[in-house]
Every structure is written in C-alpha cells, then in structure tokens.
Amino acid sequence: MKNIGEVRFVGLQNVSESDLEAVRLMRNHGEVRKYMYTNHLISKEEHASWVRRMQESETVKLFVIYRGEKPIGLVSLSKISLRHSTAEWAFYLDPGEQGSGVGVVVEYALLEYAFCEIGICKLNCEVLETNPNVVKLHKKFGFMEEGFRRSNILRDGQRIGVHLLGLTTSEWAVGKPRFKKIISRYGG
User: Fold this and answer.
1) Nearest-CA neighbor of 91 among 188, 170, 18, 7?
2) Which residues of the chain have pLDDT under 50?
3) Residue 2 in domain
4) Is the pTM of this model over 0.90?
C-alpha cells in the first residue's frame, strides 16, 4: 500500500512486537471498542492468536498505520475473493488521531490499493449505526448505502443496527480526482 506523506502502512508481518502491543492497547481503548462488533477487552494471548491467524490467511491483508514512527491504527482488507473480485474493509485509529484528517488519508490509500493494485471490482464495508461520522466519511468517498441490518448486534442490552456500504471500481474512478487534491495536502 502506498505511503502518503508522514502516514505509512506496514504489513502486519513486518511490525515489531512492541508495535503489535500498541495496536492491541489501541483496539482495547473504549473510544475504539465501542464501534467494533466485539467490544470485550482483548488479552495478550487472544491478540497473539489473532495476529498468527491473520498472518496465515490468504483472504486477509492487514496494515498497521503509522504517523512517523508511531503506530496510530490498523486497516484491513478481508474476505478477499479473487474469483468475484470483491473484498471487505475496515479501519480504526487511535482516539487522539480521530478527526485529524488521517482517516481521509487511510481511506484514499486503501481504495487505491484495493482497486488499483489488487484489482478488486467491488469493495464492501459495515459500520455500526452508532458511528455516523464513519458512515458520512465513506459516503464522501462514493460508497453507496446498500442496506441496513436493523437490530443486528446486542451491545450492553441495546440492539444496534449496521449500515452496509459498497463501492465499485468505476464509482471510485469517477470520485478519485476530487480526493487527489485533498491527499496532496498530506504529501501524497
């Protein structure tokens, strides 16, 4: 995946143990967990097992997001189907980075990677209804709402819905020029 300015992406297999631990702690932060399907605290053992499974998977590509030398998030491309040229994606950022514009950089870089490097024709994502800012961000990039799963997950005794969004390679080609200007501000 292409680095943009001071934001760079490192494959999970090339990340130090201390940075993997920083990613686990970030994932366990309350401001990150509340937007995830599973929101329990992840132990070191559970995280290590997950890292091993992800490194061995042929249908998942994970990147730790860095700003300079500091890990600030994780971006994933999963359920990659070469047969259907489809995949799903997700990301999370350190709460201190949220609202800084890094999410725009991450989304742009991931879309370029998925559509231009891997050759995905359709990219999908799911966002909890409690995270309207990310739904809005995806829609700015051209994602279309394809459905809404009402009361899809149980969280703290409350039923929460999930937005289903999708973007095709041709839709990205139309919207991409608008973002090149924005990304150039970040050194991309």
Assistant:
1) 7
2) none
3) no
4) yes
